[in-house]
Design goal:
The chain is of the alpha/beta class. It contains 42 helices and 18 strands. Helix 27 packs antiparallel against helix 28, helix 28 runs antiparallel to helix 29 and helix 31 packs antiparallel against helix 32. InterPro entries: A/G_cyclase (IPR001054), AAA_16 (IPR041664), Nucleotide_cyclase (IPR029787), P-loop_NTPase (IPR027417), TPR-like_helical_dom_sf (IPR011990), TPR_MalT (IPR041617).
Length: 1016
């Protein structure tokens, strides 16, 4: 940016040219998303004030209040975006970002109320609303004016707060209060019902400005201790040593949050303990426009320090010439009666102020070694800047001047005073982890989270602390500082609102062309190649290289070592996110469309459909999003990453539904759901699986496609086996098998027959299940084997063999079960698919349990359980866990069995697997009984038996009845109950053909009838 008058370079944050003093004229900003604070103020009952006045009189009546409002807003760096006749709408933090936008807006509101009250007009009373949030900022130009306008819900909340406020009161939202806390004092008013909001909104009232310095506010929020900085501390120690011979000046330079203030204050307190006099002051963003505001704060601190000193307090002003005493009084706002001072030219007064200030500092340094700490030079007022330059150049022994500033505020005079500039960098990884261990605790369970935070924040101390605070405030981390536990998974660490402005302010220093390159890189992701940026950025080669050099130097987009390509990556993820979120939707869409076109033309990207899908969705190219999403779903399905595959198929479904409605679109939509079913099945999303079938069936009926309707009904029938009562599953299964056979779709017929066999099994109709599964298996093993889209004949045959082996085991036909189990294992070994291997392990464990070899069953089931969890095959997790618990129970490992069966039941409930909930409950009751809680076991079994009977799970009803007989104490009063349960179990097992269960129940019954009282 250049000055329009003298062409000198101007930093984006400056309001005037440092060379000629000309006000900065900024170019019109593009539309962009911003995180800002909005202030709304108006005169109460303005209509009543001017209703009977002439138009000119009405304007004159309200104009003083409007002038006061404008002045207060501008004093604190805000922009009046709109005048409303009797009030103003103003914004803080735009068009140039400012991380202090919320405190500035609050101070402006306080000043606004004070100024209007100071007009002395009792009829002019104002109310103010202030809110911080995201907006879309844009310039609205008309024939006569231009207005910097804000769009979005944040404007409305600010307006509602204004309308709710009482006379001369300032109402603030919770978001604004959280950002300004410490800088301003608030009173919580509770939740208020505001127009347009369905729920009460937390509201705060400003009760006054805080007298805390920015450092004290930050320090009060801090929950971490000072770590590392050994190099910088050693340099400061050398400077303190050198100050014995002559004045030393050190400037700590770094972006917000890097730790300048923490280092400076830690060092200053150490020096104070060593006998140094400490004078600390800071430049305030609230007073940047007030002449000598920084110098005044410094002098007040210095005089207060002297007054509290251990030596006899001597006011250093006494030995100054009279005119210099007047100069200091002028800065300190002390009334001056000296005529000579009044007669001095402005330039001479400025020189007197500078000389007097230097004389005070020199006198203090001669009396006692003095450390002068002045923070945040980037906010210094222009009048104080020259005086501080003179103080920092004083040739006085015993004086150490320590300054801090951000890169955009480094004084032009710093080289003249021979200052040592220390460029502050982020912490190293070890120090970042030390800081995190101090806040989160040293437990290894948080190791992965700590690594993610290090990567996310690039070890910037403030960012580390605020991310941790955000996780704790949201309840994601629970406990006390120093001992926090992660209680729920984290998808994204996000960007706390407290540091969004810090990053945005840094990005606003980036020239427009470099910003455009940064935006493309942000849309590409955390890492990008220079070649890809070249193709997408549309910049000439020289211009692009210049931008990349500048961005690398600024440590925003840095070049990294890579053997494969010339790669660039964001210094930390938060910079990328803020860059990306600053773009309005239209700009984002355009960039993603260009990225998509570039990547599609690159043949090496053909195996990256997930990346192409991401950019197609962001570009809102819905047909391409459908195609790439389907390809990505197939890719991850082929790798047995079922949850990821389901996610991409879902994206493809949503994208396809956003394309124009045609018959072909509906066909694609049905086929996509049929293909996607396998991912939802494996990942245990039973309700979604059922919905796929229902939705596909509805669409097939709408376009009168019988073949696809059969397919959809088959999918729905399969889901019904897990999500409902067996009677419903059997009814729809028999219907769909008949339809599939008559309509000539062998693949869907085979799947429907497998599903019906499973439904018969769940209903306790084991003989029917054996026959139906054998029929399906014969079709799948034959030369014309066929399977529907989304699976293969081999994979479907594995399931048929698995289910057939389980059925034969329940029937007591162990040789037939063994033969089918070997077939399932052989196919699983051949395909190597995790899903097939898990299925074979499940039936293998069931068979070994049926034969009484619990230890071998446990080994097989443990392998299957681990494999299912590793590959996200969630549908099998509850049944594997259940049978593993049963194996432990058979081995006498009762406590272990209880834990595993509890996990099985909870997982079955989460998946929606009804029969697995019942079976795990039955055997959990048996484990509970063995551990001594008979009453709990009886209640659990009674509930399982009733549920199984009501829903038609007759096989499970028989198992529950037998379990009740086992856990009921064989006392004389309970004997009838036990006998009834055994006879009922025998009757059901006899009808269904469950020979092993029937034999166990008969043996127990015979023992009871023979008078035995020791029941197995």
């Amino acid at each position: 940016m250049q000055c329009v008058a003298c062409q000198s370079k101007i930093d984006p944050g400056d309001n005037w040219c440092s060379k000629c003093g000309e006000p900065v004229r900024r170019s019109e900003p593009d539309s962009e998303r911003r995180f800002v604070t909005i202030l709304r103020a108006d005169v109460i009952d303005s209509t009543g004030l001017i209703a009977e006045l002439d138009p000119e009189e009405a304007v004159s009546r309200l104009e003083p209040a409007l002038v006061a409002m404008r002045g207060a807003v501008r004093q604190f760096g805000g922009i009046v975006s709109k005048e409303l006749g009797d009030g103003v709408a103003a914004v803080f933090g735009a068009p140039i970002a400012d991380d202090n936008h919320a405190p500035l807006a609050c101070h402006a509101a306080i000043e606004l109320v004070r100024r209007v009250a100071g007009l002395g007009d009792a009829g002019l009373q104002v109310r103010v609303g202030v809110h911080s949030g995201h907006v879309v900022a844009y310039m609205v130009a008309s024939e006569f004016s231009k207005v910097y306008e804000m769009g979005g819900p944040a404007q409305h909340l600010a307006a509602r707060l204004e309308a709710a406020a009482e006379a001369n009161q300032i109402y603030v939202s919770e978001a604004c209060q959280a950002l300004a806390e410490g800088h301003v004092r608030f009173e919580f008013l509770g939740g208020k019902l505001l127009r347009g909001f369905s729920q009460p909104v937390p509201v705060y009232r400003i009760v006054g400005a805080s007298d805390l310095s920015s450092w004290r506010v930050r320090r009060a929020r801090s929950v971490s201790r000072f770590v590392d900085r050994a190099t910088e501390r050693a340099l400061l120690a050398r400077a303190a040593e050198g100050a014995g011979a002559t004045r030393q000046t050190v400037l700590l330079l770094g972006d917000a949050g890097i730790g300048k203030s923490r280092l400076a204050h830690e060092f200053a307190q150490a020096q104070k303990a060593n006998g140094w006099r400490l004078i600390d002051a800071e430049c305030s963003p609230n007073l940047q426009g007030a002449p000598f505001s920084t110098l005044k704060r410094f002098l007040l601190t210095a005089l207060d320090t002297i007054a509290k000193g251990t030596e006899s307090p001597t006011d250093p002003r006494r030995n100054l010439p009279e005119i210099q005493q007047c100069a200091l009084d002028a800065v300190l706002d002390v009334p001056i009666s000296n005529q000579r001072w009044s007669e001095l030219e402005p330039h001479a007064r400025g020189r007197a102020i500078s000389d007097a200030s230097c004389a005070v500092v020199a006198a203090m340094a001669r009396r006692q070694r003095t450390l002068l700490l002045l923070e945040d030079l980037h906010w210094i007022d222009r009048a104080s800047d020259g005086v501080v330059a003179a103080i920092a150049s004083l040739p006085v022994p015993g004086l150490l001047v320590l300054l801090t500033t951000r890169p955009n505020g480094m004084p032009v005079w710093i080289a003249r005073c021979r200052a040592e500039v220390v460029a502050m960098r982020p912490l190293d990884d070890d120090s970042g982890l030390e800081m995190l261990s101090d806040m989160l605790g040293s437990s290894a369970t948080n190791a992965d989270l700590k690594s993610r935070i290090i990567s996310h924040t690039a070890n910037v101390p403030l960012f580390i602390e605020e991310v941790c605070r955000g996780l704790k405030d949201s309840g994601t981390l629970r406990g006390e500082w120093g001992d926090l536990a992660l209680v729920r998974p984290i998808d994204e660490l996000g960007i706390p609102s407290s540091i969004q402005g810090v990053i945005a302010a840094r990005l606003d220093r980036v020239p427009k062309q470099e910003r455009s390159v940064l935006q493309v890189a942000a849309a590409l992701g955390a890492r990008a190649s220079e070649a890809t940026l070249r193709n997408i950025s549309l910049l000439p080669e020289d211009a692009l290289r210049g931008c990349l050099v500048s961005l690398d130097r600024a440590e925003l987009l840095v070049r990294i070592d890579s053997e494969l390509e010339d790669s660039l990556e964001f210094r930390h993820e938060m910079v990328r996110q803020v860059t990306y979120e600053s773009m309005v939707e239209k700009v984002r869409d355009d960039i993603h469309a260009r990225i998509l076109a570039t990547l599609e033309s690159d043949e090496s990207r053909a195996d990256e459909p997930d990346t192409l899908c991401y950019h197609a969705v962001r570009a809102k190219d819905w047909y391409k999003a459908f195609n790439h999403g389907r390809s990505a779903g197939r890719k991850w399905l082929g790798r047995s990453a079922f949850a990821d595959a389901a996610n991409y198929f879902e994206i493809a479904m949503v994208a396809l539904d956003k394309t124009p409605a045609t018959r072909m679109r509906e066909i694609d939509a049905i086929d996509l759901r049929m293909e996607a079913r396998a991912t939802f099945i494996a990942s245990g999303q039973v309700a979604e699986w059922l919905d796929l079938g229902k939705e596909a069936e509805r669409r097939a009926g709408a376009i009168d496609d019988i073949g696809r309707k059969v397919a959809a009904m088959t999918v729905r029938a399969g889901a019904q086996n897990f999500y409902g009562a067996p009677v419903e599953a059997v009814a729809i299964g028999e219907e769909v098998v008949a339809l599939a056979e008559s309509s000539g779709h062998p693949g869907w017929r085979n799947l429907a027959q497998y599903g019906l066999g499973q439904a018969y099994f769940l209903a306790g109709r084991y003989r029917g299940a054996k026959e139906m599964l054998a029929t399906a298996g014969a079709h799948l093993a034959g030369p014309a084997a066929s399977a529907p889209i989304g699976t293969t004949p081999q994979s479907l045959l594995v399931l048929c063999c698995m289910m057939g082996s389980i059925t034969h085991t329940v029937l007591g036909e162990f040789d037939a079960a063994e033969q089918l189990q070997r077939e399932a294992a052989a196919i699983a070994d051949e395909t190597g698919r995790p899903y097939d291997r898990v299925a074979a392990a499940y039936s293998g464990g069931w068979l070994m349990l049926g034969r009484g070899d619990a230890a071998a069953a446990a080994t097989v089931l443990e392998d299957g359980f681990v494999l299912a969890q590793k590959h996200g095959i969630r549908l099998f997790v509850p049944v594997l866990a259940c049978h593993l618990g049963m194996a432990y129970l058979e081995q006498g490992l009762f406590d272990r069995a209880r834990r595993m069966l509890t996990e099985a039941r909870e997982e079955a409930r989460a998946v929606g697997y009804t029969s697995a909930v019942l079976r795990s409950s039955i055997y959990l009751a048996l484990a509970t009984n063995q551990l001594g809680d008979v009453r709990a076991a009886q209640n659990m079994l009674r509930e399982a038996r009733n549920t199984a009977r009501q829903q038609g799970f007759s096989g499970l009803e028989a198992e529950a009845l037998f379990g009740e007989a086992v856990v009921t104490p064989p006392a004389s009063e309970d004997r009838t109950m036990i006998l009834a349960a055994l006879r009922a179990a025998i009757a059901i097992a006899s009808e269904s053909g469950a020979k092993p269960l029937r034999e166990k129940a008969e043996a127990m019954l015979n023992s009871m009838l023979a008078g035995g009282d020791q029941l197995a």
